[in-house]
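lol forgot to send this yesterday, sorry. struct tokens for the thing we talked abt
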């Protein structure tokens, strides 16, 4: 896994240095910035995995910066501010912040929240199907992403519906990772196959899982590949190898 690159945006030099040092000591690459122009310079010059963005930046407004960045890209943003009233937190979320941390904060708690947002971001990215580049192989099965063809271990092409194919894409992108029904539903929505909402989501996903099992499991009643993870949802319990097509 790549070392996370965290952009720390604060106009207070001491705070910026303290946070930079803290995240470097905890295994991250910390990139300091004090203004929007410095933020954009970092974004242009290399990968940034998460932005810690102070709300009050001298003559600049962190909320406005967050809003502009969110219009342009999906980098996770955590707002950091001494303004901690509910309506102020809501303003942060409304402009696209992924989390809002009030000052003063416990650095260890901030680290936990940064890790949680990064984990959600990685999950969201991986839930979006890796399009048009590879053939995926798992437990003798082959999925050709370009042709959207599924070949059994016996070299027989298995016909899947559009929704079954979209579900398989989600599972292939997340081998050995238990996924909730809501995460699966969200990913299907990303692929253009939105399930129903509310309580119907769980039922819709359960039915779809059952249909896919009937096509890729030797015994759908005792699944070995697409297993139920009690208390969570479902997991593709096998390795997936991505091969350049």
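and heres what i got for the seq, position by position
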């Amino acid at each position: 896994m790549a070392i996370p690159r965290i952009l720390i945006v604060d106009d207070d030099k001491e705070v910026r240095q303290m946070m930079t040092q803290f995240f470097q000591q905890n295994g991250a690459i910390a990139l300091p910035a004090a203004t929007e122009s410095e933020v954009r310079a970092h974004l242009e010059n290399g990968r940034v995995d998460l932005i810690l963005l102070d709300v009050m930046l001298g003559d600049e407004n962190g909320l406005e910066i967050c809003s502009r960045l969110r219009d342009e890209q999906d980098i996770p943003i955590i707002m950091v501010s001494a303004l901690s009233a509910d309506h102020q937190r809501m303003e942060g979320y409304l402009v696209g912040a992924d989390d809002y941390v009030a000052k003063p904060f416990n650095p260890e708690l901030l680290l936990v929240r940064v890790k949680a947002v990064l984990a959600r971001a990685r999950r969201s990215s991986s839930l979006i199907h890796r399009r048009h580049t590879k053939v995926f192989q798992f437990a003798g099965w082959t999925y050709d992403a370009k042709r959207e063809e599924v070949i059994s271990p016996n070299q027989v092409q298995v016909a899947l519906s559009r929704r079954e194919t979209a579900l398989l894409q989600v599972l292939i992108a997340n081998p050995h990772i238990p996924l909730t029904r809501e995460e699966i539903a969200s990913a299907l929505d990303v692929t253009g196959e939105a399930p129903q909402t509310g309580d119907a989501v769980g039922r819709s996903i359960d039915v779809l899982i059952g249909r896919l099992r009937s096509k890729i499991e030797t015994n759908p009643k005792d699944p070995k590949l697409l297993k139920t993870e009690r208390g969570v949802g479902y997991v593709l319990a096998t390795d997936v190898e991505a091969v350049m097509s």
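The helical segments are 13-25, 36-45, 62-72, 86-94, 107-127, 162-173, 181-190, 200-216. anyway ping me if u want another try
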